[in-house]
Design goal:
2 copies of one chain form a homodimer. The first copy, chain A, has a 6-stranded parallel sheet with strand order 2-1-3-4-5-11, with helices on both faces. Chain A has a 6-stranded mixed sheet with strand order 7-6-8-9-10-12, with helices on both faces. By secondary structure, chain A is α/β, with parallel strands linked by helices. Chain A is built from 13 helices and 12 strands. Chains A and B meet through α4, α5, β2, α6 and α10 of A and α4, α5, β2, α6 and α10 of B. Chain A binds a DNA duplex through α2 and α4.
DNA sequence: CCTCATGATTGAAACGTTTCATCACGTACC
DNA sequence: GGTACGTGATGAAACGTTTCAATCATGAGG
């Protein structure tokens, strides 16, 4: 149906190879024929079939990206950083959403492998899966995003969550707080646990009490409910540190609805610095992760490995988060 | 490098066609050989090359989706709905982000066309572009999302923004408001204009004053600034209707920071019902668009046209939004 | 006039599938 | 025992590119 290079060749009265040359090495063909061929291309509305090209070439110019949840601003920004760099360096990006489901991750991995992506960026749902490891060992360059796996021989880019927790703790202690609540998602999540570790490390030996409130998920609703209970209880904390901004927004809502003033009655500190943090009813202080930078770095590492596999050596990169102070503390 | 069907055939001691049959019509091949072939596939770690398959087949099983901004919850939810249906019906989805830039849209259109996507879902940046129209006329089924174009012969799915404005107006009038501010992005955007039209229609002849405040973009910061001015001014409105939830969150912040109570001192109504609306400091009333449903419908229309072009006739579908009342009104 | 070098163009092979006409081999039937 | 038939398996062609060795034309140098 769609015109092929052959149709163009006929129309232009040249051979098939010449058309290909016009497309791929225009300098190897004379001015005159080049014009004739380009005219034919325009007339027929020819669009090259990249499937055929890549089949012949044996390698594609696309990268696969599988993230846990595109709705999460954290991953969204990372994806954006990756996309920028990929585009810039001439790669296309195939975006996939595993939705934290191993089955979906598996399906997308197979799909991307069938499409022969040149490289792979992924935040795996669980530990290194069979299929992912096979893909990597079979020679597809792979970069882990927001994860480090011991003993897995590939690049990875992540953020130091312990350091983030420390930043939070130091900030709150410096502001004079001696009773701090840590509202967190399941401590089985490494992020949640690491941030608590950092918090504890920062407040150690300073006479500070840390109340840990674990809720089932990192959603605003759970933050709200946890805060209602906290505020009702006896020794109410003077500061609440949340494992992410959504929880903090929930806590903020609880404060507003019970007439508490932030930060006067209770200080509030989030994590991630999502876009809404700055626009909350009381602009939220938060620990910011360099998401865009993470994405860009991951993409650069991957492209480097794809383009110069010989010169490449795997790196595990760990970024440090940064404290953004606004009105809530 | 990667093992091909030929390698599998050799290993299993059968012909190339037989391997293909095992893959595509397992019932046409005897139990015994099927097992031998499957064993060979497993041993070699064979993964089929879909580029070659699609090249031969002349048609792929993937759909392209180009949206204006994946960070926008509205588009994100639509994408999700599309992805669900596509996956369900056996299509892969290639997700692209035009970022409201015509140049990016154009680049992605070319990319998707080179990849020979089977069908296309798009919210165009501007009017129907040359390249998009060419693609469509060349036979790629296309569905417009959140847009209707007069005289363009293809399916489209959108939401009735005038009706949404009316819903908002009726609700506020019924609550007794007689001075309403409409905080909006550029009125050159159809959505913003239509919602105003609906609002005016609802309040017509009821002795209601509508103050239109136009800001440069649909962002929380602009809502905040607009509200500060509104509140400072003389005849302050008793209700504020915003062209989207982000603006409304900005207005809410202005209210909280100036000590106004919502909804007692000023009622607040948003649009889109993004996830954060429910979790705002004062849970936000909002006009909800059936985003997931829009996505699912668009995908179903497209797949229908791809699978049974003969039985298909183009449809322009218009959904009605719905009012979600929470605590802010 | 012949040889050579240079540059432009050509034609065929190859990439990994799928499809389809053909073939081999039993089995059932008369 | 011969014919017809059904089941499985085979092999070659085709999809649209890219690549590369080979060919051709042209002009320069001897």
């Amino acid at each position: 149906m769609a015109p092929s290079i052959k149709d163009v060749a006929e129309r232009a009265g040249v051979s098939l190879g010449t058309v290909s040359n016009v497309l791929n090495r225009p300098d190897k063909v004379s001015e005159a024929t080049r014009e004739v061929v380009l005219a034919a291309i325009a007339e027929l509305g020819f669009v090259r079939n990249s499937q055929a090209a890549q089949l012949r070439a044996g390698t594609s110019r696309s990268l696969g990206l599988i993230v846990l949840d595109l709705a999460n601003p954290f991953f969204h920004d990372i994806a954006r950083g990756i996309e920028d760099v990929a585009t810039e360096l001439g790669y296309a990006l195939v975006l996939c959403n595993s939705d934290e489901q191993a089955a979906r991750e598996d399906r997308y991995l197979r799909l991307l492998e069938e499409q022969r992506v040149r490289g792979m960026l992924i935040t795996p749902v669980g530990p290194m899966s069979e299929r992912l490891d096979a893909l990597r060992r079979r020679g597809t360059p792979t970069v882990l995003v927001d994860r480090h796996y011991q003993g897995v021989d590939c690049c990875s880019v992540a953020v130091d969550d312990v350091a983030g927790g420390e930043l939070a703790g130091e900030h709150l202690v410096a502001a004079g707080h001696r009773r701090i609540a840590y509202v967190t998602g399941p401590l089985s999540l490494r992020q949640c646990k690491d941030r608590l570790t950092g918090l504890r490390r920062a407040v150690a030996d300073r006479g500070v009490a840390v109340d840990v409130v674990e809720v089932p998920a990192l959603k605003a609703r759970h933050g709200y409910e946890a805060a209602r209970e906290l505020f009702d209880g006896g020794a109410a904390p003077t500061a609440v540190f949340c494992a992410n901004d959504l929880l903090a927004l929930g806590v903020l809502r609880a404060a507003v609805s019970t007439g508490r003033r932030v930060p006067d009655d209770v200080a509030l500190l989030g994590y991630d610095d999502i876009e809404f943090a700055a626009d909350a009813a009381v602009p939220l202080s938060s620990v910011r992760q360099p998401t865009l930078h993470i994405g860009r770095t991951a993409a650069r590492l991957l492209v480097e490995e794809c383009d110069q596999p010989a010169a490449h050596s795997h790196q595990q990169i760990m970024f440090r988060p940064e404290l953004v102070v606004r009105e809530s503390t």
